[in-house]
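Quick review question:
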């Protein structure tokens, strides 16, 4: 996906999608890992049907955020996934009670190959996620505090299908 993003505008295949389904699917897909790590998963995602997005790409973003959160909590914690209707946009938040990041790490976290001090990955996941969110006209941001956890927010324009 990163090489596709570098080649030019990402090809999206938007279709009417309920964000709640994507968030619920991501939680379900990773529940076994969460349970094994002692992570309690809480999903609050009221139906938000008809969003015109590429479900494959946004599912990839959500899954990446969930995996990052679980990697930050190898010894248990809490993972919270939310979907909120904010009028002209929809907000997805993924919050964890993991190790958290410093302000310096947050500043560079969406840069290619940047890895946090506890990261196991390649340093590409959040870059890809940012590119996919921006291709949808959205914004991704992160708030984090060392020792307290991280919240990643994804705001997507609410382009609705009638």
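Suggested answer, residue by residue:
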């Amino acid at each position: 996906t990163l090489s596709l993003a570098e080649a030019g505008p990402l090809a999206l295949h938007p279709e009417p999608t309920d964000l709640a389904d994507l968030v619920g699917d991501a939680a379900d897909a990773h529940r076994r890992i969460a349970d094994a790590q002692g992570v309690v998963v809480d999903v609050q995602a009221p139906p938000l049907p008809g969003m015109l997005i590429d479900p494959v790409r946004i599912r990839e973003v959500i899954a990446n955020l969930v995996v990052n959160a679980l990697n930050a909590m190898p010894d248990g914690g809490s993972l919270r996934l939310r979907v909120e209707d904010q009028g002209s946009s929809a907000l997805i938040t993924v919050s964890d009670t993991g190790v958290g990041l410093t302000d310096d790490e947050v500043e560079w976290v969406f840069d290619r190959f940047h890895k946090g001090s506890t990261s196991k990955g390649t340093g590409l996941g959040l870059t890809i996620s940012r590119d996919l969110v921006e291709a949808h006209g959205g914004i991704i941001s992160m708030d984090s505090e060392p020792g307290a956890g991280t919240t990643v927010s994804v705001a997507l324009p609410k382009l609705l299908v009638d």
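Why it works: Helices lie at 2-6, 19-29, 31-37, 55-71, 103-108, 125-135. The chain has one domain: 2-157.
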